[in-house]
UniProtKB/TrEMBL annotation:
Gene3D superfamilies: 1.20.5.1300, Nitrogenase molybdenum iron protein domain
Molecular functions (GO terms): histidinol dehydrogenase activity
UniProt entry keywords in alphabetical sequence: Metal-binding, Oxidoreductase, Zinc
Pfam families: Histidinol_dh (PF00815)
Cofactor(s) of this protein: Zn(2+)
Protein name: Histidinol dehydrogenase
Enzyme class at the top of the EC tree: oxidoreductase
Superkingdom, taxonomy of origin: Bacteria
EC number: 1.1.1.23
Entry-linked InterPro entries: Ald_DH/histidinol_DH, Histidinol_DH_CS, Histidinol_DH_monofunct, Hstdl_DH
Length: 434
């Protein structure tokens, strides 16, 4: 590791290994292939989906949709403790989503006499949830995308998962409340949900993480359908002062690093001893970690330790990174947390491990990466509803807003606008003098 001062953060000493990333450039090599897949599925529907399932997943699927009997069988095959833990997580995610939904209220106001403005909270009609297969059966994945959609009141929640995904994933989709489940993966799944096929209904919005092909497909279909976000590899940063426990910090960093060899993991600290001891702890723990082949490469290629001169510099650097997962291990964790602005989800104090959110506490783990935390939060129940405005005007309001609207339209050279604004005013004046 070598010392470096990141531009704009002169009060930091950074031990940086992570290369620069962006959501488009990282996927330039797959963009052309994805474009062809999308066009083919749009033109040939199920036939194209079947061809790509054979080509990429080595799965020749006759019927894409999972039958109710097969869904129930997959649930029955679950280990009883696994099912209980899954339902525990589902209940927590549901309760938190319900609490969030309760804060999204319809609105009716009268800012001027007779001028009535408002909005309604309308569930999106049909959403599509991409459920990644991954190296392991990630039972939390369907919970995070399907449950909020059901809480929001979407008429139909469709789930797609790779045809070779573990059967426990089908059980997870079923228990989470998916209305329909399809064994389709990759870019072809995104295409099928975006455009519709003979088997798969066209959805209004697609949510859920995936690999580079899934991410690029979501980027390319955006417009005709909505998407939640462009999610890159996972990220975790820990903010720590001299009170930080290097052993605990290293454990949490490696827990995320085992997700993918491109996971970005980092420590931002004001204490040199914590920085050095954490680096040593990572090396020590990798010796016995069963997933060291993944986590070790992630640490070697994308690990980062930043030593800051003071707390202000630590906050500035953290807000610049805008980490997907941000843990705060300081003496006054709540006080520091209140000063942070850019992150996907915040974990305050040593007890709040990212792993708990990943699995069971109830907050959503589908979060912004690659700096997107500077302008957006993660997936939540609000992602599944539309806030649609409305208005109506009594006669007295027309006499207030009509004349300035007419004059403004005339000044812009919009004669039709001017006449539409003025005709109602003139009609009211005529009625008053009749």
């Amino acid at each position: 590791m070598t010392d470096a001062a990141p531009k704009g953060f002169e009060q930091t000493t950074a031990y940086v290994k992570a290369p620069a990333r962006d959501s488009i450039g990282d996927q330039q090599d797959v963009a052309g292939l994805v474009e062809n897949i999308l066009a083919d599925v749009r033109a040939r529907g199920d036939a194209a989906v079947r061809d790509y399932s054979v080509k990429f997943d080595r799965a020749d699927v006759d019927v894409f949709e999972v039958s109710m009997a097969d869904r129930e069988a997959a649930v029955a095959e679950l280990d009883p403790q696994t099912r209980a833990d899954t339902e525990f997580a589902i209940d927590n995610v549901r309760r938190f989503a319900e609490a969030q939904l309760a804060t999204i209220l319809p609105l009716e106001v009268e800012p001027l006499p007779g001028l009535h403005l408002g909005h309604r909270v309308i569930p999106i009609d049909r959403v599509g949830c991409y459920v990644p297969g991954g190296r392991f059966p990630l039972l939390s994945a369907p919970i995070m995308t399907i449950v909020p959609g059901k809480v929001a009141g979407c008429r139909e929640v469709v789930a797609c998962l790779p045809p070779n995904a573990h059967r426990a994933m089908i059980a997870g989709c079923h228990l989470s409340g998916a209305d329909r489940i399809f064994r389709i993966g990759g870019a072809q799944a995104i295409a099928a949900m975006a455009f519709g096929t003979e088997s798969v209904p066209q959805v209004n919005k697609i949510v859920g993480p995936g690999n580079a092909f899934v991410n690029e497909a979501k980027r390319q279909v955006f417009g005709p359908v909505g998407i939640d976000q462009l999610a890159g590899p996972s990220e975790i940063f820990v903010l720590a002062d001299a009170s930080g426990d290097p052993r605990l910090i290293a454990t949490d960093l490696l827990a995320q690093a085992e997700h993918d060899v491109r996971t970005r993991v980092g420590l931002i600290t004001t204490d040199r001893a914590v920085a050095e001891q954490t680096a040593a702890e990572v090396t020590r723990q990798l010796e016995t970690l069963e997933t060291a082949g993944i986590a070790g490469q992630s640490w070697a290629d994308y690990g980062e330790i930043v030593l800051c001169a003071d707390e202000a510099a630590m906050i500035a650097y953290s807000d610049h990174v805008a980490a997907e997962h941000l843990q705060v291990h300081t003496r006054d964790a709540h006080g520091l947390a209140a000063r942070l602005r850019n992150y996907g989800s915040l974990f305050i104090g040593e007890n709040a491990s990212v792993v708990y959110s990943d699995k069971t506490v109830g907050t959503n783990h589908t979060l912004p990466t690659m700096g997107a935390g500077r302008y957006t939060g993660g997936l939540w129940v609000g992602s599944y509803v539309k806030i649609a405005t409305h208005q109506w005007l009594d006669d007295e309001a027309v006499l207030k807003v009509g004349p300035p609207a007419s004059r403004q339209s005339a000044s812009e050279g919009l004669d039709g606008h001017m006449k539409a604004a003025q005709v109602r005013v003139d009609r009211l004046h005529q009625a008053a003098t009749a």
